[in-house]
Amino acid sequence: MPSLSVNSKRGLVIVLVAAAAIASAAITWKVGADHDAGVAATEDRLPTRPQDLAVRPELQWVLNTERLAGNSVDRPLNFPSGMKSAGITTGAVGAGDQVIVAAVGHPLYGRYDTEDGRGIVVDSATLVGVDRQTGKPLWRRGIGHVEQCSDSYRRGTIACWDIDRVMFIDVATGHVRSETTTDFLMTYADVIGGVAYVTGRRTGIDRRSVVMTAGTVDDPDSAFRREYDVTGHDSYVAETLPASDTFTIVESIYGPVQYRTTAYDLDSGRKRFVFDGDVRAAGEGLFHADDLAHQRLSLLDRNGVPIARLGSTAWMVYPPPTSAPFAPAVLDGGVYDPESGAFLWRDPVLNSGGVSAFVGTTMIVSSPDDQTIVGFDSRSGRRQWTTPWRDAYWMTGGLTDGRYFVFADYVGMHSSDATTGQILWTIRLPTGIDSRGVTVEDAGGDILRTTAKAVSLWR
Asked: Which of 141, 160, 217, 293 has the most CB atoms at less than 10 Å from its CB?
């Protein structure tokens, strides 16, 4: 998947212009709705302009929130995930090799989002296309009230949806490719490998079911529409994984089991296995399984067969910025082969530290307890370097070119040499900027920094 986002403490979501890893041999993958779609959707990627991340970049442009909105009333939204309210963060997403897209909303002052108690509710959203070279808004498209948008770019299209409405939007032009009213409650939509997927659920007096459709962005259910009966009171398609021909449905059920996961073949719709617990993709066809009833965690193969027993407090690391020939799965403080599930190595720093990037042959880990950044050989686990870093607990955003890694923290944004751990340059945040709402991401070879007050591009 062309996403270079870091999972830990991420203040906002940015998936940028042609956001593939810059090195030609890069492997980019994400656990979630399209975990390994990077393998299947290589054709979605656009050429990027190589940039030497060892060289301190120069500011190209800054776009403040008023210029973004085109007025002094609308507030920036944490696009694409936070479309219901305007809070302390701003988000942007892009597609095509020239456009960055953000969103603003019309605030209803006095009404606050009950989910976090901070964001001001908006009654409608507007997408804004921004020229990557100049920072000038190119187009604005009102899309009404929406719950969320997809967190990735696929062939220039982004999906946005409300409770019973889904739209597919060309983010290079703002043109609405299709808008459909559904007969089910929406839960997710995306375009993966050129296929538009829409998922939701239906609840009746005597029947509960999960619905999944597939097709083109112009006709989202033209390939198939499938409906699966469920018993859980809160059921949904959890992951869609075209590269491994898999999708999963998770049901919330009463009792000690709490969750039941069913894996299906994506092409045929055939049931593959059922697991009493929560199952999530953890590698190229592998799954992390949490059996809450027995407090047991396991690594499963694609058919649901246990490969390895994990600790009782295992947690899964979501793959971060990746430009590497080998990106292992990291679970329960251990490192596993992403295809076979074979155990490779373990290090105590992984019990509390988070994987920040895979760069070349190096796995970069931030350790909040030790206040350090550590570089491991991804295959052997050999510690190659350790860099003291006070803000290791707050490393967000990120991009890599296969040798250097750029990230953000409370101070600003920094570049690190993945072979030595040396910090090559630092650009501090402007005075008065809330660092919780800051991230840096790849923008087709440029660096895009987003704060609560502005979006800026660096080259």
From this structure: 160
Q: Answer yes or no: is pLDDT of 20 > 60.
A: no
Handedness of CA 180, 144, 202, 152 (dihedral sign): positive
Q: Is the pTM of this model over 0.85?
A: no
Cβ-Cβ contacts under 8 Å for 37 (sequence gap 6 or more): 1, 29, 30, 192, 193, 241, 242, 243
Distances (CA, A) of 26 to 1, 33, 45, 283: 11, 20, 12, 16
Is beta strand 322-323 parallel, antiparallel or unpaired with respect to 354-359?
A: parallel
How crowded is residue 203: how many other Cβ atoms within 10 Å of its Cβ? 13
| C-beta of residue 401 within 8 angstroms of C-beta of residue 418 | no
- The pLDDT score that the predictor gives to residue 103 is 87
Closest CA to 33 of 197, 261, 194: 197
Q: What does each C-alpha distance from 92 to 281, 350, 430 come to in angstroms?
A: 26, 31, 20
The sign one gets for the Cα dihedral 360, 4, 241, 316 is positive
pLDDT digits (tens, 9 = 90+) for 117-139: 457 888 899 999 999 889 999 99
Tell me the three-class secondary structure of 174-239, residue by residue.
Answer: CCEEEEEECCCEEEEEEEECCEEEEEEEEECCCCEEEEEEEECCCCCCCCEEEEEEECCCEEEEEE
Contact 192, 178 (CB under 8 A): no
Q: Which residues contact 321 (CB under 8 A, 6 or more apart)?
A: 4, 5, 6, 21, 28, 356, 357, 358, 359, 398, 399, 400, 405, 442
- Per-residue pLDDT of 38-90, as tens digits, reads 333 333 444 444 568 999 999 999 998 889 889 988 888 877 777 877 765 55
- Phi/psi at 448 (5° precision): -110, 125
In degrees rounded to 5, what are phi and psi of residue 333? 75, 5
The position carrying tokens 């190589």 is 50
Distance between CA 78 and CA 148 in Å, rounded?
A: 10
Is residue 168 within 8 Å of residue 176, measured between CB atoms? yes
What domains sit in the chain, N to C, each tagged with a CATH number? 14-458 (2.130.10)
CA 328/CA 36 separation, integer angstroms: 13
Whether 86 contacts 105, CB under 8 Å: yes
Contact between residue 140 and residue 174 where contact means Cβ atoms under 8 Å apart: yes
Please, which contacts does 251-256 make with residues 24 or more away whose CB atoms are closer than 8 Å?
255/293, 256/292, 256/293
What's the confidence (pLDDT) of residue 338? 87
Among all chains, which residue has been given the structure tokens 């969103």? 103
